[in-house]
Amino acid sequence: MQLKGRRVVVMGGSRGIGRAIALGFAREGAAVAACARGAAGLEALRGEIGSLDVPAFTAPCDLAQAEQIAAFIPAAAAALGGIDVLVNNASGFGSTDDEAGWAASFNVDMMATVRASQAALPFLEQSGAREGGAAIVNLSSISALRASARSAPYGAIKAAIDHYTGSQAKMYASRGIRVNAVAPGSIEFPGGAWEKRRLEGAPLYESIRSQIPAGRLGHPEEVADVVLFLASHRARWVTGQSIVVDGGQLIGP
């Protein structure tokens, strides 16, 4: 992927897709900084990255809090010596159509993406001026592409993320920064919501599984691989796109 030596910041990297993204970059030889609310998960991640003999920096950060993002980004840049790639992964998973559900998705999914991108912009611009340029990858969802009675706030805000990704791509192209999004389908991982539903025997799990042509839910690493591609020089002519990674879930069995 030609990512060796790149300096990558993953917002929301302690578990699931974010953890797979952080480890994927580290395995490619990139220096990685990650934040999340869970200190224990971050500590484990830092140990795993450190074992790969690449620089690692982690720090707790509540991505619903603007001041914590504003503090984490420059700290990460100082630890890594700059920022070449920003991955906005965190989600509040707002599902209920009420004030709490909308606030959860807006404050984390939307505003954390905006705030982290703006805080990282000066560092990304420095990288964008050099050969190879800089990249932002935002995590969207296939929920952005179809209506849902189960998670109206989550889907609507992810649709806004797709729109913002295109706007960022236009705003930042002249600065050498590419911006893309990845829209995962249903992804299962230890401790995640889908694993919990499977273990509980929830009918929704089997309903979703039956919609996927491969007959299974996705793995975090399958999303991470696409994120790595979009952040790499191999995707140097790709910007303003949202790439679906769902094993065919949207098109059905």
TrEMBL record:
<dbReference type="GO" id="GO:0030497">
    <property type="term" value="P:fatty acid elongation"/>
</dbReference>
<comment type="similarity">
    <text>Belongs to the short-chain dehydrogenases/reductases (SDR) family.</text>
</comment>
<dbReference type="GO" id="GO:0016616">
    <property type="term" value="F:oxidoreductase activity, acting on the CH-OH group of donors, NAD or NADP as acceptor"/>
</dbReference>
<protein>
    <submittedName>
        <fullName>SDR family oxidoreductase</fullName>
    </submittedName>
</protein>
<dbReference type="InterPro" id="IPR002347">
    <property type="entry name" value="SDR_fam"/>
</dbReference>
<dbReference type="Pfam" id="PF13561">
    <property type="entry name" value="adh_short_C2"/>
</dbReference>
<dbReference type="InterPro" id="IPR036291">
    <property type="entry name" value="NAD(P)-bd_dom_sf"/>
</dbReference>
